[in-house]
Write a structure and sequence with these properties.
Blueprint (H helix, E strand, L loop, with lengths): L2 E6 L10 H13 L4 E5 L17 E4 L2 E4 L1 H11 L10 H32 L3 H15 L3 H4 L3 H7 L5 H7 L12 H17 L9 H15 L6
Parallel strand pairs: 1-2
Antiparallel strand pairs: 1-3, 3-4
Amino acid sequence: MTRTLYSLCGEDIARPFSPHCWKVVMALHHKGLDFEERRLAFTAIPSAENGVSKTVPILRDGSEVVADSFRIAAYLDEAYPEAPTLFGGEGGVAMARFVEAYSNTVLHPAIARIALLDIHALLGPEDKAYFRESREKRFGKTMEDVVARREEEIAAFPARFEPVRHLVKQQPYLGGENPLFADYIIFGALQWLRVCAGSIFMAKDDPVTLWFERCLDLYNGMARETA
């Protein structure tokens, strides 16, 4: 069976950067499933799978087409129960929902305030115009104004991970001895920052950095190849 994951890139297709797509890339490796990744520019997404979604990731698995990273993860656990679980049961799904909410409301806005212009720089001309218009509408200000206090945001960034830091001091992963989808949610956010801005802006000995390095080492270090 051929699986296709539609993900996001800029002008350089070797640098996929979407945090949501990285969650699914990690999830597919976690499940041990082969797949082909088709990396699309922002403005090419409507052409994927007859416009099933305005955003990526989109997964085609045989006759099934699933959009949204969390829905894809839930689908993978249901469709491939014999492969390693992404959630570890119903409680793990609830935990991952909480982690997703934390990431989307605390981490993603902070990363945007750090890396918005870095993301813009990765895009082709048509995508640059789309990205500026859509993000300035979303934030209600120019991109330059969004990142005006970038250095202050970088200084405050490590503190936003205190719940994660507290946990990974005690165990290797959010999921315990092994990663679960909750790990990939936070990993996706930091990989987004790493690819776009070149750093995660935390000390090398920070427990969060050490956890992130463990995640980068997963699956033969495939995530390290994108930089």
